[in-house]
Design a protein that fits this description.
A 5-stranded antiparallel beta sheet has the order 1-2-3-6-7. It has a two-stranded antiparallel sheet with strand order 4-5. The longest helix has 14 residues. It has 3 helices and 7 strands; from the N terminus they run αβββββββαα. It is of the alpha+beta class. The radius of gyration is 15 Å and the shape is globular.
């Protein structure tokens, strides 16, 4: 399957809290296929279902050559002192801003068989887990920027060719 088109900042689905997945049916299995195909492209650490226009709690990840997915993810643990890390987003192309993220994160959820799944990590994995669960909660990384950087990002977005 080809990767799905990424929804861009300004699309209402990106500001909507995603619904939990109830029954795992062919629609959900197709969503996982689309998420995994969409995250395989170079430079993509994660893709949330909302970024491809689906209002369900699921995301895929591609970190250190490991590609996977999780359904109904919940950010269950973050530890360490939040630090500023350069962050970008497929839904806000071309922009990178320092964003506060915890150095360790843990997410729990399920797989397509309903089995428990736990993902955790530091570095890019911790950042991806926080970033993708934010998407499912209706947040984009711009919502976490300090006032000055948010103002600069919004100006840059308004002047972009894609907005």
């Amino acid at each position: 399957m080809p990767e799905r088109q990424i929804r861009l900042f300004g699309d209402p689905v990106l500001k909507t809290v995603s619904d939990p997945i109830g029954i795992i049916d062919s629609r959900v299995r197709g969503l996982v296929d689309d998420l995994v195909d969409s995250v395989r492209l170079p430079g993509r650490a994660g893709v949330a279902a909302s970024q491809i226009g689906v209002n369900l709690r699921a995301f895929s990840y591609n970190v250190d050559g490991v590609i996977g997915y999780i359904l109904n993810p919940v950010l269950t643990e973050v530890t360490g002192e939040p630090e500023l890390v350069e962050e970008g987003c497929l839904s806000v192309p071309g922009l990178w801003y320092p964003t506060k993220r915890f150095p360790f994160a843990r997410v729990t959820g399920i797989d397509l068989e309903g089995n428990p799944v736990e993902l955790s990590g530091t570095g890019i994995m911790a950042q991806a887990l926080q970033h993708e669960t934010d998407h499912l909660d209706g947040l984009v990384y711009l919502d976490r920027l300090d006032k000055e950087n948010r103002r600069a990002a919004m100006k840059e977005i308004r002047e972009s060719t894609w907005f």
